[in-house]
Each structure stands twice: as structure tokens, then as C-alpha cells.
Amino acid sequence: MHDQDSVYGQVFIQEPVLLELINTQAFQRLNQILQHGITGFLKITPPITRFQHSVGVMLLSQKLNAPLKEQIAALLHDISHTAFSHVIDHVFREPTGQSYHERMKEQYLQQSDIPPILAKYGYNWHEFVHEEAYPILEQPAPALCTDRLDYFFRDGMALGLLTAAEVSQAISHLTVQDNQICVDDISTAQWLGYTYMRADEQCWSNRQAIGLYELMAQLIQTGLQLSAICEADVWLTDQKLWDKLSNSPETDIQRQLAQLRRPVRFVEEKINPWREVTPKIRTLNPKVWINGKGVWLTDLDAAFAHDLAVYKQRRQGVLSLAIAH
């Protein structure tokens, strides 16, 4: 399979198991699930799909010489993402902080058309439920992993925060040592750390995105309460779930849809907030491979350690939102 990837350029996928998995109905569904949820659907952020990201994580894993089993895990890591992606985490809030798609991954995989393909090539689908079993694919934040790096590269390029040349240069300095992704020079680690902070502030945890996620979550909750949709519908595509809500005659649903369809602005309001949300702050603290071991950038660069701490302090806490009128 030949393809032109927005991050990695011309690519060629030839492993039969990967090709068959990509062609499953479950994986093809990701073509219609936008990574940025409602902001992507409303064309506020670039229309990056879970399909593109999942293939991208697999491609980056290949570039780092991950074993085939880990490439499969990379391809399937987001298979259970629901319509509107992380909006659903605002609908079904987990006290543990676990994402809804992670909690439901085993159930979704079992019922999909993926297990027979895996069995054909000698794999048990249970082996791909828990991503933490694959250290190149997934690491606790703020460490480097292919999942975190691909969405950073992909989103960052689409948002104009980084160039293809910068991404290519960064990838050339990645190295896998002791089953962990490290960087072989400090300047690349610094670039990754600082640019990732910019992406977080401008895209992933900005006030406007959080407000729209809350509005869309409210709409889905209303749809569930009024039986316009059921929980199984969250595994439809973005457009199909939106259409199902749009076809409801319920006044509350139509009012909330109208609110989302027109420009809306959110402001901070401490006195009488509409919503109080604790944003997920994303940061990177790359390890630099030096003298035969991986050392956190914060232990090598006091200025970065200070800037990272200041950023986290500034962004942490509860965000009190109101809708501007």
C-alpha cells in the first residue's frame, strides 16, 4: 500500500497483517472520527482523523524499528475512540481520569471484525488491549512515545507551529534505548519540550476548545436523557451521531444544536460560572541519551526546568467558564 502521509511523506506498507487490519470495518470507521472532536467538526481546527493518527503512530514505530507486534498495537491503539473523540470523556466522566475509549477498548475490540484477522496471523486480540505493554508506543506523561509524538507532529504541522523539515530533523535524533525513546542531543530535546508547550496552550487545552467540548458533551447528555440517542450510538461516526441528534424533534436538543452552529465565545467567570473544568495540561520532558543512560531534560537544563514548572503552575487548577453574550 502506497500513501502520502502529511508528516512522514511517501510511505509504503507491505506487512499483510497491517494491510488487512487497515481494511477492517472497525479501522475504516476511524476515517470519519476527527481527532479534535467538535472543534474539528466545526472546522475551527484542522480535520485530522483518528485513522491518520493511528497509521502515523504505526509508521513512526516502524521508523524506530519497533517489532511487528508493537506496530500492530500502534495501529490499534485508538480503535475504540468514539464519535467526537475526547468529547465523550466530558460526557462519561471517570473519577480515575481514565478515558472512556480506554475503559471500553476490550469490549469494543471483542465485538469488532479485528480478532479474526489477528488470529489468522497467530495473535490473540487480548494482547492488544493494554497499550502500556508496549513501551515504544505508550509511556506515562511527560515521557516520549510514538503516540504522543505523532499527534504532536501531526497537529503541530497542521496548526503551523512546526515545519516538515523540523519534524524530519527531530525524528533523525530519536533513538530507542532500553525500550524507551530518547533524544541523542539536547537541542532537539529543548525544541520538543518548548514547542509541545506551545501546542498545548494554543490547541489542546485552550479555553475555546474546552468550552466547545463542554457544549457538545451537554448536547450528547441531553440526547441520552431524552432517548434521542443511546450509549451504543457513540460508536457511530461524527457525522452520523450529529445527524441523529439533528433529526430529533426535542426542543432542548434543537436549542443546543443551534448554539453550537453559531459562533460562540467563552470567558472566564469566577462569580457565577456556567462550567468549572480542570483542563488536562500536556507537557513533554524528553530524556536525552547521554553517557549510556537516559536523563530527563529538566535534569540537564535548569532554564527549561524552570519554564516547565512556571507553565504548569500557570495552567493548572480549575477553569471557570461562562458563555459570552
UniProtKB/TrEMBL annotation:
Which SUPFAM superfamilies does the UniProt entry name for this protein? HD-domain/PDEase-like (SSF109604)
| Molecular functions per Gene Ontology | dGTPase activity
**Single Gene Ontology BP annotation:** dGTP catabolic process
Q: Which InterPro entries match?
A: dGTPase-like (IPR050135), HD/PDEase_dom (IPR003607), HD_domain (IPR006674)
Limits of the HD domain: 50-152
Q: Which domain of life is it from?
A: Bacteria
Protein name (database record): HD domain-containing protein
Natural source organism: Larkinella arboricola
